[in-house]
User: Fold this.
Amino acid sequence: MAIAVVALARSRNLLAVVVLAGIYSFLMGAVLVALDAVDVAMTEASVGAGISTVLLLCALALCRSDEAKPSQHPFAPLCVAVTTGAVLVYGTLGLPAFSDPQAPIHTHVAPRYLEEVPREIDIPNVVTAVLASYRGYDTLGETTVVFTAGVGVVALLRRRSLRRGDRK
Amino acid sequence: MTEDLVLRVVAKLLIPFIAMFAAYVQFHGDFGPGGGFQAGVIAAAAVIFFTLIFGLQRTRELVPDWIVETMVAAGVLLYASVGLAGIVLGGNYLDYFVLGATSVDGQHRGIFWVEIGVAVTVCGVMLKVFYMFVARRLEE
Assistant:
């Protein structure tokens, strides 16, 4: 993954960047499988490595595939990125140790879900039960977000083609 | 669109299996990893694969624009109407317990329809965005 990221940052050819980003997503999916988050891994592999790579390639087909030379030195963005990264790493120091059974997330609602799902919902995949039933409102919201995003893209691109039609 | 014989044959072999896998992920989401979101994306991927090999023209004959646009809205509406069905049958909004003979039955039914709603919207949005991108390229 580190190699992919370094190659990503150094590459000037956007086609290579898109392919490398796809590789990064697949590796991320593998990491998530190793962490036993199979549902998330599946989403990462299909959306991150699949659909978004195809959409970015479509976008590249519309414009030039070489990145323009930056107009100023990239020191300021580098500083911002490094500072943000450092703050995030500092933030992880406050988290409980990895796979600590006493971590707050394991003692709050998770035990209740794990104990009650077989009795209340009777579905082997607890993730599906939590997403679709206990957090039904959240998932409705997420679906609406996907809907809104799609409608937004349609509105942006279609208006453009209509205007071009007027000019003809 | 490509005339390459190998690609066309491989695509014809693979696409039914991709579509099958999408259905598997959708309906097996209760038992294994997966669910509406993943299934919708995989179904969209099958159609996108078809487009890459056979071109947008033939895809639009197969999956016309109006179907895709209807899917975008229909999924959300299906999800929301499952919630309304809960109210009509005497529960709260998005309360699945009242949808079946027993509360467990109701939960199964509610989750099934809600997941279908998610899959339909996700698949529709992915396809619509992809169509718009490809169509712009054809215009220019």
